[in-house]
Write a structure and sequence with these properties.
Elements: H1 12-18, H2 22-29, E1 34-36, E2 39-41, E3 54-58, E4 61-64, H3 65-86, H4 93-119, H5 121-126
Antiparallel strand pairs: 1-2, 3-4
Length: 143
């Protein structure tokens, strides 16, 4: 990758010598940034696609990408668990079905609590009855 500054620009090393505060230095050196004509140019290392959060929406009902991933993950877990139980694994199918139900509930409650506690705790401490309203949006999904 070419990290040379644009024509008339300055290198990160030169910016490091000229800049006094840390925030300005970070902006000046992140990803090979250089200045030209007083403007800061940023070379983006990764371009993130702009994907709509909803797969399909019919009236008030919307299917979101993270919801589809939850469904796919649980479907895969059920399929693989039942296959393992059928092969005579360490558990029976009835035991697995009990575990998967509690696992499903635990994931949904944990994802909602994670969202409430990590992304907007002040609001949910003032409105604790809204923590379980998953249809209003907000599920922590870290894959």
């Amino acid at each position: 990758m070419n990290t040379a500054p644009p024509e008339g620009g300055r290198s990160c090393a030169r910016a490091r010598a000229d800049v006094g505060n840390t925030a300005e230095l970070h902006r000046a050196c992140a990803g090979g940034i250089a200045r030209r004509d007083g403007l800061m140019y940023i070379r983006r290392m990764l371009q993130f696609p702009r994907i709509a959060p909803e797969i399909v929406s019919i009236g008030p009902l919307a299917v979101r990408w993270y919801g589809a991933m939850y469904v796919l993950a649980f479907a895969a877990a059920v399929l693989l668990g039942r296959l393992r139980a059928a092969r005579g694994g360490a558990f029976t199918r009835a035991q697995f079905d009990d575990v998967i139900i509690f696992g499903f509930l635990g994931v949904l409650l944990g994802a909602r609590l994670g969202y409430a506690l990590f992304y907007n705790p002040a609001y949910y401490f003032r409105h604790p009855s809204e923590i379980l309203l998953i249809w209003k949006g907000g599920m922590s999904f870290h894959g």
